[in-house]
Structures are given as C-alpha cells and as structure tokens.
Amino acid sequence: MLTKENNERLCRVGPGTPGSELFRSIWLPALLSSQLPQGGRTPVRLRLLGEDLVAFRDGSGQVGITGAHCLHRGAPLFFGKVEDDGIRCAYHGWKYGKDGQCLEMPSENNASLCQKMRLQAYKVREKADIVWIFMGKGEAPELPKFPWIGLPAPQRLATVWLQETNWVQGAEGEIDSSHVSTLHKSDQGIKADRVHRTWTFKDPKPQLSIEETEIGFMSIARRRADERFYWRVTQWMAPMFSVIPSAAWPIGGRAWIPIDDENTYCWDFSYVLEGGLPDAFMESVDQGRSFPPEYRYEAIQLNNGSIIDTWAPLRHRRNDYLVNREAQSGTSTTGIHGVNDQDRAMQEGMGRIVDRTKEKLVSADLSIVTARRKILDIMSSEASIQKYRELVKDGTVFSMGPVDTVEDTSELSEFLKSLPQQPGESDQLPAIA
Ligand code: FES
Ligand SMILES: [Fe+2]
Q: Is the pLDDT of residue 423 over 70?
C-alpha cells in the first residue's frame, strides 16, 4: 500500500507536481505522423500533462504543437486555417508559427503588439512515424534509443488509444505478471502454440525475481518447461516504458503517457528484428485481440470537457466491455474479447485514480512495489530529477531489450551471466522459435 501523500505524488501530473517535472524531462510520443498527413489541413487536438494542445502540419511539411486556444480571446485553433508558415485562428485571423510566435494580426496596425504575442509551443521531432514532443524547459535530451526506433517501417508498428485512468494504473499492469494466467486465460490462449503462452499457461506459479538496472529493473519469471526452464525477462524503464518478450511473435513495448490525472494515452510498439511483421500478428491487430484493442479514430470528449482526436476502444466502461457471460462458463476467465479490453476492464474499474491506501499487496506484487519506489525516489527532490535527466540525456538507457528463452539452468545467477551486459546488445538475443 501507499500513503495518501505518496499516491498523490505518484499519480498527479499537473503544474508544479513532481510528476509534471519527471514527464517534462523526456521526449514523449504525442501522436502518429499519419494523423497529420502531408498536405492535410486538419489539425489534431491533444491533451498532455493536463494541457490542451493542437498539432498541425504547416505548408512546409513541418509539424508544430501549440496551445489549443488563441491568445486573443480563446477561440479553438482546431478550427483554424493551416497555411504555409503556421495556423490562422478562424475567429479574427491572428496567425501563429510552429514556435507559437504571432505572425499576423489582421485587425491591428500595431506591429510591435504582434511581436509580443507568443503562444505556448513545444519542441517537436518526427521519428519512426511518430511525432514526439519535449515539454520541458532548456535543452532537450536525445530521443530515447528504443530497440525499434531505427528499424525500417515494415518491421515495426506503433498504435495508440485512450485509457480512462491515471497513467500509473496502466503502467502497473505491464509488470504485473501474475495476472496473465488468470485474466488473459481464454480459448485463444489455450490453443495457441506460441512457446511463451504454452509455458505461461502450463505453469501459472513462476519463480519471480527482480534485478535492478540503471533506469529501472528486469522482471524475471522462471517457469518449468518440461525438463528445462523457461526464462522470461521484461524490461521496465522509469517512469513508464516497458519492453515485453515474445516468441514467434513481435516483441511488444508500451508507454503510458498522461493526458491528465484521469486519462492516459496507451502506446503500443511492436517490432521484429528481421523480416516483416507476421500476417497472424496483423490479423490479431485488425481484430483487436491483443494490443491495440478494437478501436475507432474519433473526436472524444474527456471527463473534464476537453476534446481530443485519437483512437477510442469499442469496448469500454460504458458498455461493460461487451462482456459475454456465456464464454465465462468455458475456459475464458472474463468473457471479454481482447487482452487489452480485459486489462482495461480491471484497471478502469478500479476508478480513475485507485486508492492505494487500501490495497493488500502480496509477494507477487514485488515488481509493482519496486516500480513505485523507483518512481517516488526520482520524484523525491529536484536533485534526483536532475540526476534522472542526466541519465536519459543521450537516450541509450532506453535501449534495453527483453529476453524469452528456454535454458537448462534453473539458477538465476547463471542465467544472468548469459545476458548481455550493455544496453543495446540485447537486440541480438535470439528469440526462441
Ligand atoms: S480569438 Fe483568435 S483571433 Fe480572435
Ligand atoms: Fe494484461
């Protein structure tokens, strides 16, 4: 459990909070490049860390992300006209460049007034078909060097959708390996011949251990695999990045980006180190069986009234995730369609910010306890946040890869010796077929 104070500290991301400082220390994925097609004229509304923003691609092809409302009298720039060098407010025509500088005020003759007007704008980069945003002050670090970020397009897929909870609830689900055998048990899982599923479901009580790394920890699960041992290592990187192993399936990673205290963009990054994404995986994506869920791109009104343009899951809290009670009489625990739908049903059902003063944690929650402690340590002072900024400066700490392998050894120390020592080397780890 956490104290009320620590739960607040962990979850809140509004102005002046340590959470805000932490998330403003790194580049965050803001939207998919495809949401702003070249030559397109439709801006995208987004909300990050409690700030309403608008993204647009100007006539030169560059993306800008600025405050969502015009400085003059607050009209929404979403309805603005995208021009070669900026966006023009539809109300009285003030025009802003990508850096937020006011460029024109058609109804004013006072040029110096125009120069003085500057809308909030953030640094933006495009990489791996994603628009990244840096919301901090001062010099930005390098982009995180995730193992997939430099791969050619056919080897990776990024998707994003809305989760109606605080970011921590989603992030905790990533490292909560003991729920997998129960929550995600379904006909689909039992029939699958993928190695990790087979061993995961055959041995629901893995030996769990945690090995801390510079940026987070490895969550290590050892299961019996007949006469040998199935080792599965998930990387967790503060504050909320995960990389999850998979056999004969793309590697998956997720990021939980706070929209505000009560809503989150869930990002999934799937990739293969060679070849292309398997057809079976793309089929699973189309059917929303795992990550992402089945969803639709639309304008969504959040619970505070803000509107964002993103993917909305078809199964959500207002339709009970279309639960099928009949299916529960078979092998499915939930009768809910997809893996992410099942996760959201649990996490959103806890409430927007779960009350962690009331939890009864057990030994299987070790990863979660460790992650909370690490995040709270980083948030504990300006000096510790500064230390985190130094750590992430060149982006290499984010290059840790996952492990998924069957070995003879049952000894953790021996298994650890077989792991690559340097971030990035894990890219070469063979996945078991
Ligand atoms: S409100 Fe935007 S120009 Fe007046
Ligand atoms: Fe899950």
A: no
